[in-house]
Amino acid sequence: MQTSTHAPEHSQLSLFEAFLAQPVLPGLKVREPAGEYFEPDLFSELTLRGASGPCHSLLAPVLRELSEEDDTRWLTLIAPPASLTQAWLRHAGLNRERILLLQPRTGQSALHLAAEALRLGRSHTVVSWLGSLNASARQLLIRSASAGNAQSLNIRIG
User: Which end of the chain has fewer surrounding CB within 10 Å, N or C?
Assistant: First the structure.
């Protein structure tokens, strides 16, 4: 009779699950546009490509972590896509008591609303969906973030 000793089986996380289990922002890689002054502590961009469902699944842990910051200031979302509803925020586990959702008024651009929210300093992070930004738009957000001691995160989906 043969006896065999079995080592306890360890569950193995997939690469995707392992990535999500790690804190997202501290290790977030920020690309520096060539030839531009870039302040990674003030401005970051995250580009997501593909169908909205998987993109939202990747975005959820980033926003969840930001909504749980120790900073008492707001996490402000500027002009989020219509698919980021209150129900989605709740389902994603975000602390909705610490989130402001802002849409630009008639005649106001989302860029200038984001810059103003950053400059006022009432938000620790201002997340915007501004698409591709030119150098002057980036500089505006960086200067505004510096003035308000905040961080700007631009999400590019497409």
Answer: N
Containing 45, the helix (H) or strand (E) segment is strand 43-48
The answer to the question of residue 22 being in a domain is no
**DSSP-assigned states of every residue in 105-116:** PTT--HHHHHHH
CATH number of the CATH domain containing 130: 3.40.50.300
Residue range 30-78, pLDDT digits in tens = 444 444 445 558 999 999 988 878 888 899 999 999 999 999 999 999 9
Please state, in angstroms and rounded to a whole number, the distance separating the CA atoms of residues 132 and 136. 12
Whether 7 has a pLDDT exceeding 80, the answer reads: no
Measured at the CA of 58, the angle between CA 57 and CA 62, to 5 degrees, comes to 115
